[in-house]
Amino acid sequence: MEHSHGPRVRLRLLYTGRAEAGRRFRYGLLALDLLSVVWIVLASFLPSRGLVVVVDVVLGAVLLAEFAARHWIRDHPLRSAARPLEVADLLAILTLLLSPLLEHVLGFLRVLRALRLFNSARLAASLREDWRLFRRNEDAMLAGAQLLVFMFVMTGTVYEARALFRPEITNYGDALYVTITALTTTGFGDFTPTDTAGRLLAVFIMLAGVTLFLRLAQALFRPQKVRHTCQACGLQRHDADAVHCKACGAVLNIPNEGAP
By CB distance 3.0 to 4.6 Å, which of 27, 102, 183, 220 could disulfide with 209? Predict the structure, then answer.
């Protein structure tokens, strides 16, 4: 039987506990995810040698240690690590860790780190507990996060498939320009995709982007909801001034914002 104060239990409390140490630890992980995404973008502008390779390897080692720790605390580590988002995250980490061997080969997989960033935002209950702004605008913020992650992943895809658009794309800045131009359906004034594959990729970006924009607009303009679980039917989202549950009619006792 595992000791009640063993390292696995203490680590699990950092990942899932409600104590101040746990909240700070999770914010630190969120900052690490943000840092990794910023570095991936920045590194695309720099030659892949010297200090850049060193930072890649060090960052990859730190992220791999966090990945192992995150799954070590689970009851079924292998099953947890086999989930699609986790596999994508591991691939992104390995491209950093093996940077001296891979150089630019498979480098586009690094953008999959953004999926982990979005996953962190979804699972970070501390944001809901600690930030009133997040509680009041959770749907809009999550929809915005989805749009940003999609933009980042598509930017990496365009960067690696630049031959389908124009060879002059040399960094994430150029690829972001192509992505935003397709995403907003404003049209390319200075170039066009060179073949069918490039056009199909542009069409996919347009269609998916419009869907995400509509979801964000819906979250921004629909009536504000609050999160409160109905004890009778389990419905979680209600009008801020609701007295009865719209699903089952049960009486609700939604606490006022800021009430103890």
Answer: 183
Is residue 109 predicted with pLDDT exceeding 50?
Answer: yes
Residue 174 makes CB contacts below 8 A (sequence gap 6+) with 159, 162, 168
Is residue 105 predicted with pLDDT exceeding 80?
A: no
Beta-strand ranges (E) seen in the chain are 225-227, 237-239
Q: 48: burial class by Cβ within 10 Å (0-12, 13-18, 19+)?
A: middle
d(CA 214, CA 182): 16
Cβ atoms of 175 and 191 closer than 8 Å: no
**Burial class (CB within 10 angstroms; exposed 0-12, middle 13-18, buried 19+) of 39:** middle
* pTM as predicted: 0.62
Distance (Å, whole) CA 58 – CA 43: 14
DSSP 53-73: HHHHHHHHHHHHHHHHHHHHT
Residue 163: its pLDDT value, please? Answer: 63
